[in-house]
Amino acid sequence: MKTYDLIILGAGITGISVARQKILTDPDCKILIIEKEQKIGMHGSGRNSGVLHSGIYYPPHTLKAKFCAEGSRLMTNYCKEYKLPILKCGKVILPTKRQDYDQVDLLYERGTINGASVEIISQKELLEIEPEANPAIERALYSPNTSVVDSFAVLNKIQFELINLGVKILFNEEVILANPDQSTVKTNRGSSFKYAHLINCTGQYSDRVSKFFNVGKQYTLLPFKGLYYGLHKNSNIQINGLIYPTPDLSMPFLGVHSVRLVDGSVYFGPTAIPAFGRENYQGLKGVNIKDATSISYHLLRQYAGNKQGFRSYAHQELHKLFKSEFLKSMQKLVPRLSDSNLIVSQKVGIRAQLLDTKSNELIMDFLVERVDNTTHVLNAVSPAFTSAFSFAKYILNK
């Protein structure tokens, strides 16, 4: 049985960022990363939009607020240092109904406190930045420093860096058993490892893995599917950057929006539609009876209890399964969009959203719990990619 100073479960952006931060500050640390897939980026980290958020949305006392703006700066500097693709395109956030104007003021206040570069712009300024934006918008929020990166380029560069620094990454192995008393884990391929400290960064499976260590018993993950449409290459619609709606701040989702990738292509999305499997990207793939039953049960409880306005949000999102309804949502932001402008995209992701089964509330912030010599990153959803380098310091300190 091999022994490591630090074992990290999961080679997503959080896991590899933790490994990078640790090995840079402690070069003699013997680190093992265990990843169940054959390569990095198969799930959340490789399927996200690549947007580096600025730290506008999050209440100032939260972990997301603390780490987002700094994380964005660190990730931006990393991409520039290693000449990785990055597009500084800016973001506008538009109120789509009258009561949303108060949200614009609130988001401006939050962004300012959180260290983001943000300003309230007039109708004229909005149309100069995004000529296709809804001309009925009287004022909007503008984040000039919001950028987009190539997620895979970042992941691959960090992986290359880690290997050169002596970190071992074990692919195609999944931890299926743990003995916290003996500080050991066993994988599906029969390998066993001993750790001085272990950090659980398994994303879509963090709740399940944490229970091997008697941690996080009150939490379960609910998967939400993010579907996209692409902008037809022959469209006469010109999107210069990112166009977002003001979000429902009672929910952890940002609403369908435009995303301009580093290669210049434009997508619209993602939705936040309940999925019935943690890897249910298409059809019935990634669905099993045990998971689907548990997910359905908790979704129905959320729907019946209507905590955080879940019921109305669910209705709103389910309508977006229909292209016509999806289009209506986007037309509130970009009125000239038409059915022929939208093409079906293969781009799809799963947002692993943590639910507290005691309070029946979706967890809005990052959540990390430590018990003995194990640390568990239980909730690391957006802006986890943006915050990764900053968040990693916190995880290690904890």
Describe this structure in words.
It is a single chain. The protein is an alpha+beta fold and 398 residues long. The protein is built from eleven helices and 21 strands. It has helices at 13-25, 44-47, 63-81, 100-113, 123-129, 151-164, 206-210, 289-305, 310-319, 323-331, 384-397, and strands spanning 2-9, 31-34, 51-52, 86-88, 91-94, 119-122, 139-143, 147-149, 168-170, 175-179, 184-187, 192-200, 219-231, 242-245, 257-260, 266-269, 273-274, 342-356, 361-362, 367-371, 374-379. It is globular. It starts with a strand and ends with a helix. The model has no long low-confidence stretch (mean pLDDT 96).
Task: Give a count of the beta strands, DSSP E runs of length 2 or more.
Answer: 21
Which regions contain 5 or more consecutive residues with pLDDT less than 50?
Answer: none
Strand content: 25-35%
- How many helical elements? 11
| Rg, alpha carbons | 21 Å
Most strands sheet: 8 strands, mixed
Roughly what is the average pLDDT, rounded to an integer? 96
C-alpha geometry: globular
The span between the termini is 27 Å
Structural class: alpha+beta
Range of helix content: 25-40%
Briefly characterize the structure:
By secondary structure, this protein is of the alpha+beta class.
